[in-house]
Design a protein that fits this description.
With 414 residues, this protein is α/β, with parallel strands linked by helices. It has two domains: 235 residues, Type I PLP-dependent aspartate aminotransferase-like (Major domain) (Aspartate Aminotransferase, domain 2); 109 residues, Alpha-Beta Complex (Aspartate Aminotransferase, domain 1). It is 42% helix and 17% strand. The protein is built from 14 helices and 15 strands. A seven-stranded mixed β-sheet has the order 4-10-9-8-7-5-6, sandwiched between helices. It has a four-stranded mixed β-sheet with strand order 1-2-3-13. A four-stranded antiparallel β-sheet has the order 11-12-15-14, covered by helices on one side. α5 links the parallel β5 and β6. α3 runs parallel beside α11, α4 runs parallel beside α5 and α11 packs across α12. The chain is globular, with a radius of gyration of 22 Å. The protein starts with a helix and ends with a helix. Bound molecules: pyridoxal-5'-phosphate.
Length: 414
């Protein structure tokens, strides 16, 4: 009975075009990458095609995931520290490499947060859940943008705080919610760059509200760290803001190309997290080779090479937008639209789940991977291709994307 229930539920999902399947990467993360489909879901694609695909699905915005210096540092870190850390941070797993990484990360945020320290977590998901549960409790209130990342939503639930969600970007609603709240501890929580739309939160206005209502401002910069701001220092630097109210979360598996995440905040907040954050305390430290590789990836990211890569990424973003806008204009009856994003995340909104899957699969047949994102990751009726750009893409990769998409749009008409 239990199995039948799950199986029937899975059937419903498949009927609604909501089934998800994995592709098996056979080569490093790169613009051109070889994939196979997992055998259970052969219908989703051609199992025999293991030719490199031109991919627009990674969050490796600077192309550092397979950077030779980062890869070499990984190997060096493993030689120096071994394969695993062995225990949690507070019990002995905190290596010299972890310590060094935290010092460097704090160094990147000194112009944004007074007396800043940083704490390294195994993943962004864990950092977000940990921050909200460590700073919030039953008597606090959390104010969150409705399009925030799932990990922030889960953190609010787990904190058992009073949860208020405001419609995406509607700060007048947030203001009302704040003014009606009598909670002692208030946390305003936002993605800096929204992960499925690519638009940037109005952090300056959010900070004003945080000051007015004496709230923390938790900023999840998973898609801004490494990409936006001076030397890629992220969204707070992008807006030139400075405040002790910031609780800044950067993830290190996206633009930084490796894995993990960090929280940067006033040293008293970091001390509190180290003492109380359950996702920090009750888990084995990441293998030290990870922070060791991250120190090298941060050198590249914040240096001249990082700057060149950010410049190239901007050109690619511009060309992609121009190309897709042309396609959208040429086929008004398809009702496709390009989201209003100036970042590496470019969403082509199609709407219907099955139609979006069909477009993604036709792109796949042309050797181009543009992932179809469907509910519950995005609101119902807003299924989309999430086209994610990287400095690893060349201009001719973008031309191939545009020409493929243009052909698929034309086929769609017939
Ligand atoms: C990817 C992502 C996370 C989770 O980070 P991981 O390190 O992948 O666990 C958190 N927030 C946002 C907005 C993200 O896009």
């Amino acid at each position: 009975m239990l199995l039948e229930r799950l199986s029937s539920e899975l059937g419903h999902r498949a009927n609604d075009g909501l089934e998800r399947c994995r592709r098996i990467a056979e080569s490093p993360c790169a613009a051109h990458q070889s994939f196979a489909f997992d055998a259970q879901h052969m219908s989703e694609g051609d199992l025999s095609s293991r030719k490199p695909t031109l991919g627009f699905g990674s969050n490796d915005y600077l192309g550092l995931a397979n950077h030779p210096e980062v890869v070499a540092a990984y190997a060096d870190g493993a030689k120096r520290y071994g394969g695993g850390g062995g225990s949690s941070h507070l019990v002995g797993g905190h290596s010299r490499a972890h310590e060094e990484l935290e010092t460097r990360l704090a160094g990147l945020l000194t112009k944004q947060i007074p007396d800043v320290n940083a704490l390294f977590f195994s993943s962004g998901y864990m950092a977000n859940v940990s921050v909200l549960t460590a700073l919030g409790d039953r008597s606090s209130a959390i104010f969150a943008d409705k399009l925030n990342h799932a990990s922030l939503i889960d953190g609010a639930l787990l904190a058992r705080a009073k949860s208020h969600r405001y419609p995406h970007g509607q700060l007048h609603v947030l203001r009302n919610q704040l003014s009606e709240s009598d909670s002692q501890v208030k946390l305003i929580v936002t993605d800096a760059v929204f992960s499925m739309d690519g638009d940037v939160a109005d952090i300056p206005s959010l900070l004003k509200l945080a000051k007015e209502f004496d709230a923390w401002l938790v900023v999840d910069d998973a898609h801004g760290f490494g990409v936006l701001g001076e030397n890629g220092k992220g969204s707070l630097s992008h807006f030139g803001l400075y405040s002790e109210r910031f609780i800044y979360i950067g993830t290190l598996g996206k633009a930084a190309g490796v894995a993990g995440a960090f929280v940067a905040a006033h040293r008293i907040v970091i001390d509190w997290l180290m003492q109380t954050a359950r996702g920090y305390i009750y888990t084995t430290a990441t293998p030290p080779a990870v922070p060791h590789a991250l120190c090298v990836s941060l050198d590249v990211l914040a240096g001249d090479e990082g700057e060149k890569r950010r410049c190239h990424l901007k050109d690619i973003i511009h060309a992609t937008r121009e190309g897709i806008e042309g396609i959208v204009r040429a086929h008004p009856h398809l009702h496709w639209s390009l989201g209003d994003s100036l970042t590496a995340i470019q969403p082509l909104l199609i709407g219907d789940n099955r139609e979006t899957l069909a477009v993604a699969s036709r792109m796949q047949n042309r050797g181009i991977w543009t992932p179809a994102i469907r509910p519950p990751t995005v609101p119902a009726g807003t299924a989309r291709l999430r086209i994610s750009l990287s400095a690893a893409h060349s201009m001719s990769d973008v031309e191939e994307l545009i020409s493929g998409l243009s052909k698929v749009a034309r086929e769609h008409v017939q």
